[in-house]
Amino acid sequence: MTDATTLPAAAMPPRSARRRILMRRLWRHRSFRVGAGIVAVIVLMAVAAPLLSGGQPNAMSLRNRFAPPSADFIFGADNFGRDIFTRVLYGARISLWIGFASAMLAAAGGALVGMASAWFRKLDGIIMRIMDALLAFPAILLAIGINAALGPQVSSVIIALASAYVPRMARIVRAAALVVRELDYVDAARVSGAGAGRIIFRHILPNVMAPLLVSVTFVFAYAILAEAALSFLGIGPPPPHPSWGNIIAEGRDYSVEAWWIMLFPGLAISLAALGMNLLGDGLRDVLDPRLKIEA
Amino acid sequence: MADTTDPIIRVRNLSRDFQVGGRGRKRQTLHAVSDASFDVLPGETLGVVGESGSGKSTIGRMLVGLLPATRGEIELFGETITGPSGKQALAKVRHKLQFVFQDPHAAMNPRMRISDIIAEPIDVRGGWTRKDRADRVAELLELVGLSAAFADRFPHEFSGGQRQRIVIARALALDPAFIVCDEAVAALDVSMQAQVINLLMDLQQRLGLSYLFIAHDLAVVRAVSTRIAVLYAGEIVELSDKRSLYTDPKHPYTQALLAAIPRPEVGTRKPPIRGEVPSLLNRPPGCTLCPRCPKAFDRCRTEAPALREVAPGRKVACHLYDGV
Amino acid sequence: MLQIENLSVDFRVDSGWISSVTDVSFTLGPRASLGIVGESGSGKSVTALSVLRLHAARNTRMRGRIMFDGQDLLTLPERRMREIRGRDIAMIFQDPMHSLNPVLTIGDQIGETLRIHQKLDAAAAQKAAIGLLDMVRIPDAARRVTDYPHQLSGGMRQRVMIAMAIACRPRLLIADEPTTALDVTVQAQILDLLRDLREEIGMSVILISHDLGLVAEFAERVLVMYAGELVEEAPSLTMFARPAHPYSEGLLKAIPSADEDVGRLYAIPGRIPDPGRRPPGCNFAPRCPLVQPACTAAPPPLATMEPGHLIRCPVRLAAMETTG
């Protein structure tokens, strides 16, 4: 073209720099930093549990029943003389797995339901009323019901919690997808003859990942708390395998004379939930689409 | 231009209603476009001018199948895309139609590379080898005045003017014959706007494209169009070749639009027309411009004027020209 | 009345500080009208917002002086600044919908300014609001005063914004793209209204716009900004008839005309440099048809070409002197 001379390369950051800017913004966000730090420490400790402890969370020692916190048992011991520190470390593995797996499962289910609702407008009314009905039900009651039906296994806890959080996820995905589907690039794809599959998977889904990712962190935190609640009610992961919830549940009969049995797993739960929430806050602030990465 | 050739696009009595205001008795019908009829010839640019709510974008969207028509007929390249077998007809001619959007930021998926954005029409249609596709992307980028090296980048790395060039490159991917440009330069700065207008004109000459150029800016429309349709409240009120429209506007609304353009010499502009575009829900009986029109008389209040030919190539919907 | 001396504004970004406005100086007398023209990123709005100190203090660094009635607005405590905002200096924005609170009636919103600055009671404020709506030519003001913003058209909303702005009879009104979101015919109405009000109230008006035609029609003097700098200042007729800076010249040539068929438009090549990546010498040098080696070496100064006409272009200045 005559005066449409080939323009110089735009002086803007390339892809890798965009990532770097995103990472730098995240790192500069104080609550993200603190949250990520907490979560990282907990995960590392769970992974390194055999190195940090005796490696036998279920080893009983009648001699040490109800040993209070000391140099040997830094978190004390329980009614079977099991080391609480070791149990909390191994418990992190189960609790974190339950949190992670149920958040992921809920995200997948929510994405499916939410996208269906946003795309097939005729189904929207029905789908969202069902989701509303499920939301009106306390999540924990729903989880109790599902868990009771499936029997006491770690997997049934995960399925129960995931199902309980699907409606929230679905709402978030639907809201974001409804915005994206009205954008010009979706129309551009339609003008080119693109079908529903291409539009959903190429254009809409990738652009609703940010809010989904943020809510995954929050559901992760809820799920860890809910696992504790289920265990407390006796329908958590089956003993003797330790989860933070069932360590507390087992300690509840001795809460006055052996407070440490409940205190330390309780602290671990609070810390993990706090860490995930802080991390999620940071992600939400940084991934906010209103903060454009330019210049 | 091509006076004697057959039109590539023939629109007859095209109307589009929208239902608004919930369900039951509260539901009202909004007539966004009423009874529009026009042709587009090969190689020409039909400018469509109007203010917000004039229905200009609605017409553009119906022409490329983004929005179904409520009534009337659209014939594209001999295929009637309205009516019962419209879908199959549209599929046959789809590759000849394209659309350029107002906001080049919203018109590109931020998570796709420029090459994938430009090649989307190719990918949807299928049947291209990887190498042909890459070559075509490079060719298109150069065609719109950008470097082929941009193919691997992402939209956020480009300025508004560059993004609009990329959107145009995508529109050209399958060698279309007809492109709807919906306010394609309205979001751009003046210096970028001139670049993009020149690009569109150059491409038209080189590739023999026809455009439907939708805009609110009369100066921009004058720069690009062959013929111009003036829309008011969903109706075509004047349809004319470019020169006569600007030198001798017939319809009082066209006259008002031209009079509203700011002029640097103080006091040279006539006082602007009163009022604003009416709500399309409560349109007045008779002529829609009537409540604002300085030349309205009794008949205008009761009877809606039809679009009639008042001179060769000039159509006006106004009772002032009833005797002509 | 208003005297801006060497105003520079920097904003904080991820990588440090970038300069948005560099060394801008101008004066504005009482009852005067001034236009500021520029493309996006030129710094025209930033300059105007600086007068009211509306930038977030944490991420902004301002240098220079903004003298208003003998006091420097940049050094005034925030409490004093709040008194000045709305009372002595008022502002209207591009988008009247986002500037109005949807849950309050327009009477309440106009009255609020009066209750803050003039300590009127509710009844008196309501009465004053009706008077103001009359002033901005809203028909049937006594009834409209209880309307909510969504009941009004875009043009009416902008009139309400203007009513709020003039409630305390300010001495300076800053209008930032006040007609950009409006239709062509409504734009002319608002412009006429602003001109009438300027005389009725005896205030000065700064009109900021990307549209040179609009600014030239409204204002006595025009400033052209480019990449954060003032590049030309002239009486508006001079600016329109014989712009001296190559950028102003290019900008004028790039605007399509509604009055004549121009054929191919002139397009300034390239684009505005991003803040933080401005060239070492003249900001316009990379796009300038007159560029000389000296232009890229050092930033050129703003110099007087003739009384009242300043340009930042030594090349053009030298050419003018040799030709007489």
Please give the alpha-carbon distance between the first and last residues of chain C: 35 Å
The pLDDT mean of chain C sits at: 90
Largest sheet entry of chain C: 8 strands, mixed
Distance between the termini of chain A: 28 Å
Beta-strand portion of chain C reads 15-25%
CA radius of gyration of chain C is: 21 Å
| CATH level 3 topology of chain A | MetI-like fold
Number of domains of chain C: 2
CATH uppermost class of chain A: Mainly Alpha
Stretches with pLDDT under 50, minimum 5 residues of chain C? none
Individual helix count of chain C = 12
Most extensive interface between two protein chains, with residue counts? B-C, 44 and 44 residues
Which CATH top level class of the largest domain in chain C fits?
Answer: Alpha Beta
Q: How many beta strands in the DSSP annotation of chain A? A: 0
State the secondary-structure class of chain A. mainly alpha
CATH topology descriptor of the largest domain in chain C: Rossmann fold
CATH architecture of the largest domain in chain C: 3-Layer(aba) Sandwich
Strand content of chain A: under 5%
CATH superfamily of chain A: MetI-like
The appropriate CATH architecture of chain A is Orthogonal Bundle
- Strands of chain C, total number: 12
Write a brief caption for the model.
Chain C: Keywords: ATP-binding, Cell membrane, Membrane, Nucleotide-binding, Transport. The complex is a heterotrimer of chains A (295), B (324) and C (324). Chain A is an all-alpha fold and 295 residues long.
